[in-house]
Amino acid sequence: DQQVKQNSPSLSVQEGRISILNCDYTNSMFDYFLWYKKYPAEGPTFLISISSIKDKNEDGRFTVFLNKSAKHLSLHIVPSQPGDSAVYFCAARNNAGNNRKLIWGLGTSLAVNP
Amino acid sequence: NAGVTQTPKFQVLKTGQSMTLQCAQDMNHNSMYWYRQDPGMGLRLIYYSASEGTTDKGEVPNGYNVSRLNKREFSLRLESAAPSQTSVYFCASSPQGVWQPQHFGDGTRLSIL
User: Fold this and answer.
1) Residues A21-53 pLDDT 10s
2) Could you tell me if A86 lies within 8 Å of chain B, comparing CB atoms?
3) Which of A64, B28, B90, B95 has a CA 20 to 30 Å removed from the CA of B48?
4) Which H or E run contains B48?
5) Cα–Cα distance between B84 and B67 in angstroms, integer?
6) Residue percentage of chain A with pLDDT more than 90
7) Cβ contacts of A32 on chain B, cutoff 8 Å
8) Chain-centre distance of CA B10, in angstroms?
9) How many CB contacts within 8 angstroms connect chain A with chain B?
10) Which of A41, A42, A104 minimises the CB distance to B43?
């Protein structure tokens, strides 16, 4: 039972265009969300995060939007660059009780074409 | 600027053999983690150490043991390897507090025959 779902396994975008990666979650106790990027044969790298008290966080070309009522967040990359081609993971923090942990999505593979 | 270093990068074991995966971080982080990544399963937490001297089970601890040797080092041991433990293992660390953004090593690809 996936509590954090990245429903698109892959996404292909032209260089310079916007990339939108989506993530849905089921648990209303999640209070903090993170995006990681992963290149082949490397570990994930932290990209950007957002607290549940906010609906938007921006860092350069990367913006994360959070819609709590829909239990949905998205990562926007503008403009997309070939170096952004990687697998992107969404993760959510469950801060409830004694069972605090990060729940990870399965990832979306982004290909940015020159 | 090493960050999180994992050794070895690759290993092939036979069923029943034991081995220890090593992890060291040079960022003076308090918390360290071990994950495994399997196709279709995402990243799953095996064990974590919130601070030096403490360790706790994650989602999938069975078949593994850990040691937080000091603030820098956190090792993962497979006492009797099983084919189901074939996976890519990632070590991570975070500055303070268990659930801050984590810095990952490049992984150990482990195959058990």
Assistant:
1) 999 999 888 989 999 999 988 999 999 999 999
2) no
3) A64
4) strand B42-49
5) 22
6) 81
7) 99
8) 14
9) 44
10) A104
Whether the upstream peptide bond of residue B39 has omega within 30° of 0, thus cis, is no
Measured CA to CA, the distance from residue A87 to residue A108 in angstroms comes to: 5
Verify whether the Cβ–Cβ distance B42 to A32 is below 8 Å.
no
Nearest CA in chain B to A108: B42
3-state secondary structure A42-94: CCCEEEEEEECCCCEEEECCEEEEEECCCCEEEEEECCCCHHHCEEEEEEEEE
CA distance B9 to chain A (A): 10
Those residues whose C-beta lies under 8 Å from the C-beta of residue A97, and which sit 6 or more positions away, are none
Q: In whole angstroms, what is the distance from residue A18 CA to residue B40 CA?
A: 27
Q: Tokens for B83?
A: 């084919």
- Asked if B44 and A95 come within 8 Å (Cβ–Cβ), the reply is no
Integer-rounded Cα Rg, in Å, for chain A is 14
Predicted confidence (pLDDT) at residue A99 exceeds the cutoff of 60: no
**Minimal C-alpha gap between B81 and chain A (Å):** 23
